[in-house]
């Protein structure tokens, strides 16, 4: 769909007036006097999440240990329950998703489940534009197998800010034991074609997993249809569940029989967990990949936050996200490109190829983002030259987008950024 935008403030106001998700903004706690455009790093607090967290704290207060079985949502299967609730966001069967651990821990757990170097197939394929924690985890997984990451971790080089699927596929050789990729690049916001990559990996007999931190909650996923083997993602970016909140994992049901690589008592077959037997038997569901007691207080906000996302609907969220990021790109092109502004869009212009943020590039990105901060605008700076701006469908407005573009113009016109040190 082609959107028709104009540069005047009235256009922003009309877009807001016609926004079917406009009412969701009032369900969030918006920091005062702030334009918050950083929901791709830490989503804002939904009131519903505050409510579910307070309910659980109250259960602890009033029920003590009985909360495990008598809480409104018994803590005993909180991880499985939240997984069920989140499954539709990623196109999974409810049994295939669990809320557990953290992103990096879940990555370790699933990579250790799927990475079994054997014969010629000893290597893991990733890419140089990965979020670094993924690379660190893959390196240590390779070392744990007694192998050297310098030889066994293969990183697909980028083409500028982006990755080319065709090139990734060229690297899917018969030496690869596993492919582990991001769904979306955390800097440029490029969304990879997960369906295509999965199909090509499987054609070559290689299992494939995705780190979807930068897309779940902004973009619909169809893991089952695509046949993805496993995935991990956090809950605190586009899912708005709080700093360091419990993360998610997905494991395709065809792999439920696989031995989890990292085991712990919470992955035990639920009905028999309290038999306390010494022989481990994992639940044949995503819950089987849990290790420890559910971190209930870090999971409780997810319940309320998911309700807001599900109520808005992931397709409507995606629709607005595309429209509002397209609007931002339009304004940058119209008002901020060329002398003296010289801002550039570092995000794919084809909306199908981007996630929920826009990377605005400028040689003075750091000082400009500092100047924005003094004007109450929260974005994040990624060295050397990127200002990441995430106009989030659930709580940002078109007018906020219009406003920050005016601010950027003024910051350059008045050389305001020069007040800040490099
Ligand atoms: C945010 C993010 C993480 C964070 O990992 P934690 O273990 O939650 O700190 C990991 N991977 C990607 C791609 C991310 O964007």
Helix content: 25-40%
Could you say how many structural domains there are in total?
A: 2
Small molecules (ligands, ions, cofactors) in the structure? pyridoxal-5'-phosphate
Backbone structural class: alpha/beta
Mean pLDDT rating: 97
CATH class of the largest domain: Alpha Beta
Shape: globular
The major beta sheet can be summarized as:
7 strands, mixed
Encode the helix/strand succession as letters: HEHHHEHEHHEHEHEHEEHHEEHEEEH
Question: Quick gist of this model?
Answer:
With 422 residues, the chain is an alpha/beta fold. Helices cover 36% and strands 11% of the residues.
Structural overview:
The chain is built from 14 helices and 13 strands. It is of the alpha/beta class. The chain folds into 2 domains: 9-30 and 313-419, Aspartate Aminotransferase, domain 1 (Alpha-Beta Complex); 50-311, Type I PLP-dependent aspartate aminotransferase-like (Major domain) (Aspartate Aminotransferase, domain 2, 3-Layer(aba) Sandwich). The strands form 3 sheets. It has a 7-stranded mixed beta sheet, sandwiched between helices. It has a 4-stranded antiparallel beta sheet with strand order 9-10-13-12, with helices on one face. Strands 1-11 form a two-stranded parallel sheet. Helix 1 runs antiparallel to helix 14 (398-413) and helix 5 packs parallel to helix 6. The longest helix has 23 residues, at 314-336. The chain starts with 8 loop residues before the first helix and ends in a 9-residue tail after the last helix. The mean pLDDT is 97. It binds pyridoxal-5'-phosphate. Pyridoxal-5'-phosphate (PLP) binds at residues 102-104, 131, 133-134, 182, 186, 211, 213-214, 234, 247.
């Amino acid at each position: 769909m082609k959107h028709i935008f104009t540069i005047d403030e009235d256009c922003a106001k009309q877009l807001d007036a016609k926004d079917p998700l406009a009412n969701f903004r009032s369900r969030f706690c918006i920091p005062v006097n702030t334009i918050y455009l950083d929901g791709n790093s830490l989503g804002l607090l939904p009131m519903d999440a505050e409510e579910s967290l307070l309910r659980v704290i109250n259960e602890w207060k009033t029920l003590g240990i009985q909360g495990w079985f008598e809480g409104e949502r018994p803590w005993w299967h909180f991880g499985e329950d939240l997984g069920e609730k989140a499954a539709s966001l990623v196109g999974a069967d409810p049994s295939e998703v669990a809320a557990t651990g953290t992103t990096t821990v879940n990555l370790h757990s699933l990579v250790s489940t799927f990475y079994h170097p054997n014969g010629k197939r000893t290597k893991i394929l990733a890419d140089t534009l990965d979020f670094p924690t993924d690379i660190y985890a893959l390196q240590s997984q390779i070392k744990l197998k007694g192998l050297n990451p310098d030889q066994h971790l293969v990183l697909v080089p980028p083409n500028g800010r982006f990755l080319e699927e065709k090139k990734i596929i060229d690297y899917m050789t018969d030496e690869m034991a596993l492919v582990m990729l991001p769904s979306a690049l955390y800097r440029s916001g490029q969304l990879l074609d997960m369906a295509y990559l999965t199909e090509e990996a499987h054609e070559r007999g290689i299992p494939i997993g995705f780190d979807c931190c930068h897309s779940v909650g902004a973009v619909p996923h169809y893991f089952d249809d695509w046949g993805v083997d496993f995935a991990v993602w956090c809950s605190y970016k586009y899912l708005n569940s709080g700093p360091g909140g419990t993360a998610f994992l997905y494991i395709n049901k065809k792999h439920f029989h696989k031995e989890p690589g990292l085991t712990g008592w919470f992955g035990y077959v639920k009905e028999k967990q309290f038999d306390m037997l010494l022989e481990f038997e994992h639940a044949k569901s995503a819950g089987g990949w849990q290790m420890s007691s559910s971190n209930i207080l870090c999971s409780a906000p997810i319940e309320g936050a998911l309700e807001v996302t599900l109520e808005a609907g992931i397709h409507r969220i995606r629709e607005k996200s595309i429209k509002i990021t397209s609007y931002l790109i339009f304004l940058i092109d119209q008002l901020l490109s060329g002398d003296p502004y010289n801002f550039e869009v570092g995000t794919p212009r084809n909306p199908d190829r981007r996630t929920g943020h826009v990377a605005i590039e400028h040689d003075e990105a750091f000082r400009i983002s500092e100047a924005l901060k003094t004007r109450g605008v929260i974005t994040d700076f990624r060295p050397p030259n990127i200002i990441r701006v995430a106009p989030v469908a659930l709580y940002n407005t078109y007018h906020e987008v219009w406003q920050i573009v005016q601010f950027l113009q003024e910051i350059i016109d008045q050389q305001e950024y020069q007040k800040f040190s490099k």
